[in-house]
TrEMBL record:
NCBIfam families (alphabetical): PRK00179.1
UniProt keyword annotations, A-Z: Cytoplasm, Gluconeogenesis, Glycolysis, Isomerase
GO molecular function annotation: glucose-6-phosphate isomerase activity
Organism of origin: Halomonas flagellata
Annotated metabolic or biological route of this protein: Carbohydrate degradation; glycolysis; D-glyceraldehyde 3-phosphate and glycerone phosphate from D-glucose: step 2/4; Carbohydrate biosynthesis; gluconeogenesis
Presence of keyword Iron-sulfur: no
UniProt xrefs under CDD domains: SIS_PGI_1, SIS_PGI_2
Record localization: Cytoplasm
Primary site of residence: cytoplasm
Record-given protein name: Glucose-6-phosphate isomerase
Gene name of the encoded protein: pgi
First-tier enzyme category under EC: isomerase
Record InterPro entries: G6P_Isomerase, G6P_Isomerase_C, Phosphoglucose_isomerase_CS, SIS_dom_sf, SIS_PGI_1, SIS_PGI_2
Length: 555
């Protein structure tokens, strides 16, 4: 029997009715009505605390949302994901990023094959590579030890390693040959050109990171890098193209054939599997830059933290399950309170790239409008999600959060303790105080967003431009400390949140067909730009834009 769309079933309809009363309720009244709201809506797991008390919901909302999760078949869907069923239906394959963080003594048999030995064989190959770098034994074509590694990749082959290396830079191991890790992703070559102007080709190696190994952005950068190395090193005695290719390139991809065609030495390739989605891939070979920076021990800690969250996701009851609750808060806001903007606000400079990472994770996964069976959805899916470091955003877009016309859900993210390991006492005291200042701002902002004018003592009537409505919902995610393990758990928390929402919205979070048409049309446009032929097929605006380029080039 075919099921009715989710928005026509009982739990959704009950929520829609309930929302009619909740829409007019202010957060300040919810807090005034009940003591112990924090305890009622706060949960802990894997070194993380999730405080959902500042969501605009009540116990009844909470219970109805749990009904919705059950009615959407969430427990069965989660099991199907984690057990390796073909949950990515449009590409007919499993989505098994969680297998990448299973411990070596685990076993996960999928379609007759235990995946764990292969996963750990790749981790062991990564470990051997990292050891060579850290021993100063990975040498360039002229015999000098490699010092700079530039990751060439884009999207999931860039954002994860970029975000994590930035977040965990404090965890560089001591006493090893120091490797600097850089990232170049933009197809226009501007980031790469900057590195090429500064780095020494003799001591620079490029990691070509691309699941498909067909992404034009990455391959364009790779060609430029290869030509730079060849032209700079080609004149050195005893150096030929083969040696440069061998010593200065590592490939990470799901396509060994394409890496071979490009000339990557087979023993300098790290392969991964089609069942790992690009934006879920930092846990294996794509994470090589992370392991090069922080060492394999810390990389394995990152995996262990994510695995702890995977276990929690599998085992915890829905009402205590962090990814489930985070997802349900989002569903409540998007689908029932009409709040379709979501801001990610970390209060720790090390998480500078976390919002950019989540922009891909959430919007490329759930920016969909067609269900598994090809039906147009009749409700909103992924909200517009953006963010940046909270303290800096306070001086940029918080004005809109406080006094604009848009309702926005916010995630505040912060570690409780920082800098207590700084050895110089005076510096430690100053830095710890700066961290407390940061936390004070984090807590104050979520409070003002919640209470509005009620956050300040009544000082008489104020003009409209000094008034604050409040009632903006938020979640606070606290980490005991930002460590490889808690960061792993934090990322896995959001990965599973995305899956829970996709399950309720009945969409596939593991494909991204929406980006394909743009790539195809860009190829056609490039052919016209280069060949000066076929302009007549273009619309009036595109024709004029192309002609402007030709004119400027002639001038
Ligand atoms: O543009 C979409 C996308 O396919 C992402 O999903 C992916 O992370 C990125 O491009 C890079 O793809 P690849 O790793 O195959 O180069």
């Amino acid at each position: 029997m075919t099921q009715l769309p989710i928005d026509q079933r009982g739990a959704w309809r009950a929520l829609a009715t309930h929302a009619e009363t909740m829409r007019g309720v202010h957060l300040r009244d919810l807090f005034a009505a009940a003591t112990g709201r924090h305890a009622a809506y706060t949960r802990h797991a894997a070194g993380l605390t999730l405080d959902l008390s500042k969501q605009r919901w009540s116990d009844e909302t909470f219970a109805l949302l749990l009904d919705l999760a059950r009615e959407a078949g969430l427990p069965e869907a989660s099991r199907a994901l984690l057990d390796g069923e073909r949950v990515n239906v449009s590409e007919d394959r499993p989505a098994l990023h969680t297998a990448l963080r299973l411990p070596a003594d685990a076993s996960l048999v999928v379609e007759g094959e235990d995946l764990v030995p292969g996963v750990h064989a790749t981790l062991d190959r990564m470990a051997t590579m990292v050891e060579r770098f850290h021993a100063g034994q990975w040498r360039g074509a002229t015999g000098k030890a490699i010092r700079n590694v530039v990751n060439l990749g884009v999207g999931g082959s860039d954002l994860g390693p970029l975000m994590v290396t930035h977040a965990l830079a404090d965890y560089r191991p001591e006493g090893v040959h120091r490797i600097e890790v850089h990232f170049a992703s933009t197809m226009d070559g501007s980031q790469l050109a900057d590195y090429l102007s500064r780095l020494n080709p003799e001591t620079t190696l490029f990691v070509l990171s691309s699941k498909s190994f067909t992404t034009i952005d990455t391959l364009s950068n790779a060609r430029t890098a290869r030509d730079w190395l060849m032209s700079r090193l080609g004149q050195e005695e005893g150096v030929d193209d083969g040696l440069v290719m061998r010593q200065h390139f590592i490939g990470v991809s799901a396509s060994p054939e394409k890496m071979n065609d490009w000339g990557i030495a087979p023993d300098h390739q790290l392969e991964f599997w089609e069942w790992v989605g690009g934006r879920y891939s930092l846990w294996g070979g794509i994470g090589l830059p992370i392991a090069l920076l922080v060492g394999m021990g810390n990389f394995r800690e990152l995996l262990a933290g994510a695995h702890a969250m995977d276990r929690h996701f599998r085992e915890a009851a829905l009402a205590d399950n962090l990814p489930v609750l985070l997802a349900l808060a989002g569903i409540w806001n998007v689908n029932f309170l009409d709040i379709r903007a979501h801001s990610i606000l970390p209060y720790d400079g090390r998480l500078e790239y976390f919002a950019a990472y989540l922009e891909q994770l959430e919007m490329e996964s759930n920016g969909k409008s067609v269900t598994h069976d090809g039906r147009e959805v009749g409700y909103s899916t992924c909200p517009v999600l953006w963010g940046q470091l909270g303290p800096n955003a306070q001086h940029a877009f918080y004005q809109l959060l406080h006094q604009g016309t848009q309702a926005v859900e916010c995630d505040f993210i912060a570690p409780l303790v920082r800098y207590d390991d700084v050895t110089d006492e005076a510096t430690r005291d100053h830095l710890m105080s700066q961290h407390r200042l940061t936390l004070a701002n984090c807590f104050a902002q979520s409070r003002v967003l919640m209470l509005g004018d009620d956050a300040i003592e009544d000082d008489g009537p104020r003009p409209g431009h000094k008034r604050y409505r409040g009632n903006q919902p938020s979640t606070t995610v606290l980490l005991e400390r930002l460590t490889p393990a808690t960061l792993g758990a934090l990322i896995a928390l959001y990965e599973h949140k995305v899956f829970v929402q996709a399950t309720i919205w009945e969409i596939n979070p593991f494909d991204q067909w929406g980006v394909e048409l743009g790539k195809k049309i860009a190829g056609e446009t490039q052919r016209i730009l280069e060949s000066h032929q076929g302009l007549e097929a273009m619309d009036d605006s595109t024709r004029a834009l192309i002609e402007a380029v030709w004119q400027a080039e002639r001038a």
